[in-house]
Design goal:
6 helices, 103 residues, mainly alpha, elongated, 2 domains
């Protein structure tokens, strides 16, 4: 029975810690967000960050990296397209594979 009291005591200490640190208030405020959906969120950590205000504020460096990534994606797509065109152009000047083997 002493074992149960020790576990309950630790739980009570942890509950008081959560109350003092404001975690319980924050969870209570975020709880209505759970009722908005028809089922449990698929990505619980993302849901909590979004609804509890724990999402980090946007860093200007992150925004710059996003813009750079978008630029690089555009360049990549242009290079892939150019590569396809060059391969098609090269294929016009190369003999078919069967002719190469016959020689």
């Amino acid at each position: 029975m002493a074992h149960y009291k020790a576990a309950d005591s630790k739980r009570e200490q942890f509950r008081r810690y959560l109350e003092k640190s404001g975690v319980l208030d924050t969870l209570t405020k975020g709880e209505p967000g759970l009722g908005e959906g028809t089922s449990c969120p698929r990505r619980a950590p993302r849901f909590l960050k979004h609804h509890l205000g724990a999402a980090t504020p946007e860093n200007p460096e992150i925004e710059l990296l996003r813009l750079e990534l978008a630029e690089m994606k555009e360049k990549y797509e242009a290079i892939v397209e150019e590569n396809k065109k060059l391969k098609a152009k090269l294929a016009q000047y190369e003999p078919p594979q069967e002719e190469k083997r016959a020689e």
